[in-house]
Amino acid sequence: GQNIDQPTEMTATEGAIVQINCTYQTSGFNGLFWYQQHAGEAPTFLSYNVLDGLEEKGRFSSFLSRSKGYSYLLLKELQMKDSASYLCAVVRGDYKLSFGAGTTVTVRA
Amino acid sequence: DAGVTQSPTHLIKTRGQQVTLRCSPISGHKSVSWYQQVLGQGPQFIFQYYEKEERGRGNFPDRFSARQFPNYSSELNVNALLLGDSALYLCASSLWDTDYSGANVLTFGAGSRLTVL
Q1: Which of B98, B109, B116 is nearest to B23 (CA)?
Q2: Is B84 helix (H, G, I), strand (E, B) or coil?
Q3: Gyration radius from chain B CA atoms
Q4: Is residue A2 scored above 80 in pLDDT?
Q5: Which of A60, A69, B50, B56 lies at a CB distance of 3.0 to 4.6 Å from B97, suitable for a disulfide?
Q6: Cα distance from A35 to chain B (closest Cα, Å)?
Q7: Would you list the DSSP string of A38-84?
Q8: pLDDT tens per residue across span B70-83
Q9: Residue numbers of A between 41 and 70 with CB closer than 8 Å to B
């Protein structure tokens, strides 16, 4: 089966840094996506990792360790608009996506 | 450019009824996938179509069916609705159905929220 775990909720203050961890056990691996989803809206693409290491894109960075089945999304200089759910999605061996339940991040002033 | 568009945005049905949800992919995208997202959970894979052929089916009953048209748009049908079918149904498109990358990203529509009473 597919098992993707991420924390349910995280809270941080404006301007701070938050790290959202994702661990996975899936049938095959062809990459990992992070999506942001505001309440009632579509998930929007943040990052994609297929090789080990850190991918940096502005205030957001994503890290992958395939040997450990582990990824994290790092959000820096938090803004109020970053309050959202963050979804970790693994591309399985059959190229279908398995999603975690999502981490709700609340940014406080 | 228009993103992935879905219709209707909201709908209410009663148990036993049937529903058809529609999706238009981003222009040039040939792969369409359907996901079900229950409140508080991540999206669950239902179907994937590429070039009008079914490329995968998730763990959903036969009451769920889908198809892709020559213009790459897609419909998801759910028969004999149950209360548990209440969810946000997301459609996502990509250029092709494999080799995801920064250049081949799964892009989601805003979804169709189905409530079954």
Answers
A1: B109
A2: helix
A3: 14
A4: no
A5: B50
A6: 10
A7: -TTS--EEEEEE-SSEEEEETTEEEEEETTTTEEEEEE-S--GGG-E
A8: 999 999 999 999 99
A9: 41-45, 48, 50
Residue entry with tokens 């994609």? A48
- The answer to whether the CB of A8 falls within 8 A of the CB of A100 is no
Quickly tell me which residue has 């052929």 as its tokens.
B53
Euclidean distance between CA atoms A54 and B47, whole angstroms: 32
Confidence of residue B1 (pLDDT cuts 50, 70, 90): low
Residues of A in contact with B102 (CB under 8 A): 48
In this complex, the residue of A4, A96, A100 whose CB is nearest that of residue B56 is A96
Residue A93 predicted with pLDDT over 90? no
The candidate with the shortest Cα–Cα distance to A51, out of A35, A61, A64, is A64
The pLDDT of residue B37 is 94
Question: What are the tens digits of pLDDT across the range A40-84?
Answer: 888 999 999 999 999 998 999 999 999 999 999 999 999 999 999
Query: Of B56, B90, B102, which has the smallest distance from its Cβ to A94's Cβ?
Result: B56
Distance from CA of A98 to the nearest CA of B (A): 7
